[in-house]
Design goal:
single chain; Helix Hairpins; 3 domains; about 50% helix; Rossmann fold; about 375 residues
Amino acid sequence: MSAKKITKSNLTVNKGIEQPDILNVKLIETIKKQAKSNYKVKDFVNGILSGDIKMLSQSITLIESTLKKHQDWAEEIIEQCLPHSGKSIRIGITGVPGVGKSTFIEAFGKHLTELGYKVAVLAVDPSSRISKGSILGDKTRMEELATDSRAYIRPSPSAGSLGGVARKTRESIILCEAAGFNVIIIETVGVGQSETTVKDMVDFFLLLMLAGAGDELQGIKRGIMEMADMIAINKADGDNYNKAILAKAQYSNALHLFPPAPSGWYPPVEVCSSISKMGIKEIWDSIKKYKEFTESNNFLIKNRLEQKKNCMHDAIMQELSNRIYLDDKIKSLISACESDLMHNKINPYKAAHKVLSVFLNNEAHFDCGIQ
C-alpha cells in the first residue's frame, strides 16, 4: 500500500469565539436585584423626578421586563411621570446601514450638551431572529457622549418582549422627559418598517444619507423621503465633499416633486461631517426653526395629540396579542392548529378564525362570571 501524499494547505482556520448566551444576563440580574430590594413605586418616581440616572435605568428595565409584577410597577411609574413629561423636542434619526448614525448622534449630542441641553438617546439595537440576542453596542460607539454628565444613552433590543419596540420606546420617552432631558433622540435600526413607527412618536424626523454610493435617488424609498423633515448628507469630508454637494442638489430637486408636508414645512437638505463637525450647528438651527414654525401654526400640538390616539390603538392591539399568546389554553390550541397545518388538515385562515373564536368565547364567559 502506497503512502498517501500529504498536501500542505494555505487555508488557515482560526479558532472561533464562544457564542453569547441568548439571554441578557445583566438584565436578568438587575431584575432579580430589584425583586429583592425594598423599592416601591414612589421611590422610582421620586428618583426619576430628581434626575437619578440609576432609578431611570431601573425603571426602563421594568418596562422591558415581561414579568407581570414588573409590568404593573412600570404602568404605575409611567402614570405618575406623565404629568411631568412632554417638555422636550423629540428627534428621530434614521438612515441606510453604514451611513454613520451612531457617530453622527455622538457629534450632534455633544454639540447640544455644550449648549446646555440634557440629551437622552434611545437606541434600538437589532435583535437576531434566530438567537434573539442583541449586541447593544451603541455605548461603545458613542464613548465620548456616554461619559457626558448631561447625556444618557439607553440601547434596547428590538425583540424579546411582547410589548414591542414602539410601546417600550414611547414609555421610555416619558420617563426621560420626567427626568429632565429636554432633547430626546431615537436612533432606528435602519431603513425599513421601524421608520414608520418612529415617525409616529417624534416631532422631527431626520434622514441621513451618503453621497457617492450609487444613484442617489434610487438609494432609498420615496415613502421614507416623504416622512423626512430634513435630509442630511453625512460623511461630507475629504474627497466626499464635492459628491455630497452634488447629492444635496439632487435631493433638493427631488423634494420639489413631493406634495407639501402636513406641517407646511419644506424639508431642507444639508451636508455634514461627524468627524469635522461641519454642518452640525446648521442642522440644530434648522430643527429649532422647525419647532418654532410648527408651534406657531399649532401643528406640533395637533401632531402629538394624533400620536396619543395612535398610541392607544397600538396599545389595544398589543394587549389583545398579549392576552392571546399568554393564555395557556390558547397556546395549546395554537400548537394543535400548527400541527394540523403541517399535516394539511386545516388552512391558515380557518386556523386563525378558530383560535380567535375560542379566545373571544373564553373572554365572554369570563366577563359573565362563568367558570
